[in-house]
């Protein structure tokens, strides 16, 4: 039995671009549930259709797509936001990620890159146009500080820590599953459990947490016997 198609919503204030992206994704097997041209309708419609992925432009006229991203990721936990913007400015990328975006793609990306990015975002991966992932992780390294000693760190299991370490190294859920000889679903369960314990929203924030706590510098875990 084949898996259901990834459900998508496209948010962009340019009707021709918006409709063109929606059409391209539909032709490639995605279930495009809705489109929107501004932040207010984006949140309202997303709450109704609850897509797997919202493809979000940052320039939405009076309201920034960053604000729409923040509202959607906070109010619709099961929906991930992939920014598709004409801007590759570092400040725009970092603002979008801090608002909860799972990834960032510039509009110069090819159709194949877009399709791959939407699929990977739906699967829970953090997806960025080449060069931007290093920018995000580099910024998180710069911001890294000693953990607040007044707050006890959440207790992660050994396996959750192993998965977190590999997420910080940029591995996808499928790659982690292959490395640890466990199922893809088990990896996702560990990721979701870790997100809940750490009160984080996505894998980019998980990677930041791992970097701040030095997990990305530790040795790789052994495979389960």
UniProtKB/TrEMBL annotation:
Pfam families named in the record: GerE, Response_reg
Transmembrane region(s): none
Domain called Response regulatory: residue spans: 7-122
Domain named HTH luxR-type: residues: 149-214
Sorted UniProt keywords: DNA-binding, Phosphoprotein
GO MF annotation terms: DNA binding
Keyword Lyase: no
Highest taxon of source: Bacteria
Protein name: Response regulator transcription factor
Organism of origin: Saccharopolyspora karakumensis
């Amino acid at each position: 039995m084949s898996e259901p198609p990834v459900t998508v919503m496209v948010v962009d204030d340019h009707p021709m671009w918006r409709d063109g992206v929606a059409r391209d994704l539909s032709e490639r097997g995605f279930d495009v549930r809705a489109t929107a041209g501004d932040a207010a309708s984006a949140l309202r419609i997303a709450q109704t259709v609850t897509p797997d992925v919202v493809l979000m432009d940052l320039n939405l006229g009076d309201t920034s797509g960053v604000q729409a991203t923040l509202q959607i990721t906070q109010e619709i936990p099961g929906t991930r936001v992939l920014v598709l913007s004409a801007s590759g400015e570092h400040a725009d990328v970092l603002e979008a990620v801090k608002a909860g975006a799972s990834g960032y793609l510039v509009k110069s990306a090819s159709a194949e890159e877009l399709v791959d990015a939407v699929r990977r975002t739906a699967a829970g991966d953090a997806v960025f146009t080449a060069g931007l992932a290093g920018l995000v992780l580099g910024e998180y390294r710069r911001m890294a500080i000693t953990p607040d000693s007044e707050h006890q760190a959440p207790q992660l299991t050994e396996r959750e820590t192993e998965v977190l370490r590999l997420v910080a190294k940029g591995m996808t859920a499928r790659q982690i599953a292959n490395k640890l000889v466990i199922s893809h679903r088990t990896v996702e369960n560990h990721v979701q459990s870790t997100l809940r314990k750490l009160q984080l929203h996505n894998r980019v924030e998980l990677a930041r947490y791992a970097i701040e706590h030095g997990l990305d510098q530790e040795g790789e875990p052994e495979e389960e016997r």
